[in-house]
Design goal:
single chain; BACK domain-containing protein; four-stranded antiparallel β-sheet; BACK; alpha+beta; Kelch_1
Length: 478
Amino acid sequence: MENKNTDSRRWEPVNKLYKISSFVDIYKSLQYLRKVTEENVLGLLPAADLLQLQGVKDACCDFLQSQLCPTNCIGINTLADLHSCKKLITSSEIYIHQHFSEVFGGDEFLSLSSEQVIKLISNDRLPVSSDEKVFESVIGWVKYDLGSRQCILPQLMEHVRLPLTSKDYILKNIVVEPLILNCFKCYHYVFEALNTINSEDFIPQIVRNIPRHGDKVILAVGGNGFRKINCLEWFDPRTDQWHFGPELITDRCQNSLVVINDNFVFDVGGNVYDFEPHRSVYMLDLSSESPCWQPSVDMLVERKLSGVGVINDNIYAVGGFDDRFGNLQSAEVFDYNTQAWRMISSMTSIRSLFAVGVLNDILYVVGGQDQSQRPLDTVECYNPSMDMWRPVANMRVRRSCAGVGVLNGVLYAVGGVDGLDCLSSVEAYKPSTGVWTSMADMLLPRKYPEVVTLEGTQSILSHFEISSFSLEWTKWEF
């Protein structure tokens, strides 16, 4: 293992650091020094483990955790596993996963066993921006000891999710790699990936086709307007490809979608069987081996075209429309931990066709239309800790059927209609200033746009097209 503060110095084996005859002497030295250091930690930890000195062991683990860096995290994880330091095992594994792109080129990674490499690269939560990095790590590991490792390459490639890399990368880098060219099984995985990328049919849900949970994708569920469908699709922005996912239990439209903890997808309300609003909620667990939709807890109020948002694992369902009572002013919250809905304070005004966004744990309701179907420029926000709604500054433009997104502490209102025209305009709200500011217009007017933030970019979905807005360039592009 390497010291966090230097790249040249290494922690040597215990017998090179200490001229001490027993673990008891090591413990006595700690009593004298009263401090865990780089020089004594590799002797103290096994001594504390053997003598069951939990306090000393905890102090060693805390010190090692503070020293975690890309060049020593694998060694620290191995040491933690050797001495059953559960907390340090978990924290070092998380660190390795979070910094995989930096870890895989280091000496510690290259010294791992094949079993350890497979365990690492098969992890669904490996937060790589692309499996291109995983492929490069596998090739680098094999080439480090080519004579003994080349035969293991097919086992490793089984866990590289090539269909989720780009076609251009496969053609320029993978098909020309000599190790791949000389391995029939590996080349089979390459053909499988190219066929998947080029296919317009349903893609089989094998592990190599499923995004890692560290990969951010866009989900689209249900129908639009009065067209009910039971389809789920997901869009991979890295490959610019749409894929089909598990079908909904029933056809739906005018429903709402939220995600908790990057794993649990909730489909809330909408029209189901008879174009009447429903209280039903369905949940999809993306972390399960075979994800499928399951009934969740029904809402307390029937809603379609409602606004939804998530704050601290709580789902807020706001307003919407009921065929019997018209526009709804009420709101309710679902506590994921207790699995129960409860009513909260109603909005200050009755509105429909509004947009919802969450910024700094505050729920914002933006625009919409009143009971006379007049577009609104008003905005109000809800503070969960106070169970209170209050108005904030009006937008510069009246908008119903707009979209809302949040990026870098700013709330964006996008498109919609002003009563006469479909809008391409965008405006931004900063809570610190309390005012709305005009931003660059979209390339096209959009009604009912859905706004998603991915890697510092706002992506807008509408009418089978996606466009994106980058703060860095302050412009829109397809």
